[in-house]
Amino acid sequence: MSIPFSNTHYRIPQGFGNLLEGLTREILREQPENIPAFAAAYFENLLEKREKTNFDPAEWGTKVDDRFYNNHAFKETSEEEERENAALKIQAAFRGYLAREEVKKMKSGEAQEEKREENE
């Protein structure tokens, strides 16, 4: 008889994934024989560093993740802001068009002057 898998989803505490990534990186780098003992020593060392320097890698990882997931790309904008942004893009495109036309005129004016100089 088989038992279906549970649909329960556990929430990973903030910073925990970061701690496990650090541990995994060190295990892959060191290739220890006794992984549980290595993990215990790794976390003891981490605790000592945190107590001495007041730097908590779990807290730092949480802030980095929070900054990544809550940046401006994920913020919703109102219709008014969208219209304003669209208007700014149109204005910038039109200014670019005018600038390119002016450059074309300047280049054609230089070409005409060179032709006059060659004819003289």
Automatic annotation (TrEMBL):
GO terms for cellular component: cytoplasm; membrane; sperm fibrous sheath; sperm principal piece. GO terms for molecular function: calmodulin binding. It comes from the Eukaryota. Keywords: Membrane. This is Sperm surface protein Sp17. Homodimer. May interact with ROPN1. It is a peripheral membrane protein.
